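Example for tutorial group B:
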């Protein structure tokens, strides 16, 4: 598979959130970008064009006039962005992470992450930078504006950072309650970053975790209950289950897992949003988002 290095004007629109019509005006009036043209006279843009547009868009969205921006050299553009970076650190970081993604540049990713970590907690970085970035990249992947290789590259780097934080939380662990959380993704579910971050928050709150990871059949959960009491399972439902409804899955969980031994399930993820108005088994609790999870963990500390 060849990695995308040429972009259509529609790709640029998706990546920058600037309308194609506006990009054409900027290009014609200010000579802002220098596209190539195909044999059929269709514009194509390279990575340098894309990076410049992302820089220009950042300044434009923060109150700078396009006529002034267009007069700046690339060096002046970077210097101005650096001045703005102190107040808009998270937004700048997202832009830099996107550039690192297109260049497959893990060094730039790591440098930017460590700069953020000097002033922000990992929770702040995850909520303010990583979550918006992942959401944006997911939409870009669905629209075809980036390759799966780009999406996987940046996702794996973020996953690595979460895993490092989990290791630190494990080393500093101080148990606050005898409840155990067993975290897993259902069979054929592979979107793991959200679950990993939950593991970090649960450990940080002082609860022991058993991290099972992705693609776990329901039958395998019985083995956890053979060894531990007071278990709360936590799972993320992003695209699975497909063959049966999530409602069926939760009722089966109640019968097949909690029916044999007392336990509960905290259900998270996009698919659970459809369940808010549906009567659920007593053992199931919907956790709509990460903020709700953090609040629930705080409450459990004192129960």
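The residue assignment follows.
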């Amino acid at each position: 598979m060849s990695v995308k290095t040429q972009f259509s004007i529609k790709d640029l629109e998706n990546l920058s959130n600037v309308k194609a019509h506006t990009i054409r005006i900027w290009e014609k009036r200010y000579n802002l970008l220098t596209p190539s043209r195909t044999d059929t006279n269709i514009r194509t843009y390279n990575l340098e064009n894309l990076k410049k547009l992302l820089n220009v868009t950042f300044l434009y969205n923060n109150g700078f006039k396009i006529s002034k921006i267009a007069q700046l050299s690339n060096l002046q553009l970077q210097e101005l962005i650096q001045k703005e970076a102190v107040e808009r650190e998270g937004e700048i970081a997202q832009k830099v992470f996107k550039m690192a993604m297109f260049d497959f540049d893990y060094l730039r990713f790591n440098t930017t992450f460590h700069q953020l970590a000097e002033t922000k907690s990992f929770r702040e970085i995850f909520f303010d930078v990583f979550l918006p970035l992942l959401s944006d990249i997911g939409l870009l992947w669905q629209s075809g504006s980036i390759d799966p290789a780009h999406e996987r590259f940046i996702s794996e780097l973020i996953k690595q950072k979460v895993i490092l934080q989990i290791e630190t939380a494990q080393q500093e662990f101080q148990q606050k309650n005898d409840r155990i959380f067993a975290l897993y993704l259902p069979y054929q579910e592979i979107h793991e970053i959200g679950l990993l971050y939950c593991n970090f928050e649960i450990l940080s709150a002082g609860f022991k975790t058993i991290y099972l990871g992705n693609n776990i059949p329901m039958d395998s959960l019985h083995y956890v209950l053979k060894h531990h009491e007071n278990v709360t399972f936590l799972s993320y439902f992003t695209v699975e289950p497909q063959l049966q409804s999530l409602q069926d899955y939760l009722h089966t969980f109640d019968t097949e897992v909690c029916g044999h031994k007392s336990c509960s399930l905290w259900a998270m993820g996009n698919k659970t949003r459809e369940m808010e108005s549906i009567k659920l088994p007593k053992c199931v609790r919907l956790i709509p988002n990460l903020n709700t999870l953090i609040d629930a963990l705080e409450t459990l500390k004192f129960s």
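Residues 1-87 form a domain with the Multidrug-efflux Transporter Regulator; Chain: A; Domain 2 fold (CATH 1.10.1660.10). Compare this with the pattern of hydrophobic and polar residues in the output above.
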